Amino acid sequence: MTIEQQDFYTQTILSLAALVGLTSFLMLGQGRLLRLIFVFAVQGLLLTLTTALAAYSLNNPHLYISAVLNLVLKVIFIPWMLRREVIQMNTHRDIEALNNNTMVMLGGASLMVFSYYVLHPIVQTTSPVMLNALALSLSVVLLGMLLMISHRQAVAHVVGFMSIENGLFFAAIVATKGMPMVVELGVAFDVLVAAVLFGIFFFHIRTSIDSLDVDLLNKLHEVDK
Amino acid sequence: MIAAYLVLLIPFIGILFFAVSGHRTDTGKLNVRFNAVCLAATIWLAINVLNQGTILSPGKAFLIDPFNVYLIVLTAFVGLTTAIFSSPYMAHEKELGKLTDQRLKLYYSMYQGFMLAMYLVLTTNNMGVMWVAMEGATLATVLLVSLYRTPESVEAAWKYFILCGVGIAQALFGTILLYYAAVQVGDVENSLLWSVLYANADKLNPEVLAIAFVFMLIGYGTKIGLVPLHNWLPDAHSEGPTPMSAVLSGLLLNDALYAVVRNKMLVDGASDSNMAGLLMMGFGLISFLVAAFFLHRQKDIKRLFSYSSIEHMGMMTFAFGIGGPLATFAALLHMTVHSLTKSAIFVTVGHAAQVAGTQSMDKIRGLIKTQPRVGWGLLIGTIAIAGFPPFGVFTSEFLVLLATMHSYPWLTLPLLMGVGVAFAGLFRNIQPMVYGDKPEGQVPVKANLWPVMIHLGLVLWLGLAIPDFLANWFSQATLLISGSTPL
Question: Where, by residue number, does the polypeptide cross the bilayer (chain B) (predicted)?
Answer without folding.
Answer: 6-23, 30-47, 67-85, 106-122, 128-148, 160-182, 208-229, 273-295, 316-337, 374-395, 407-427, 448-466
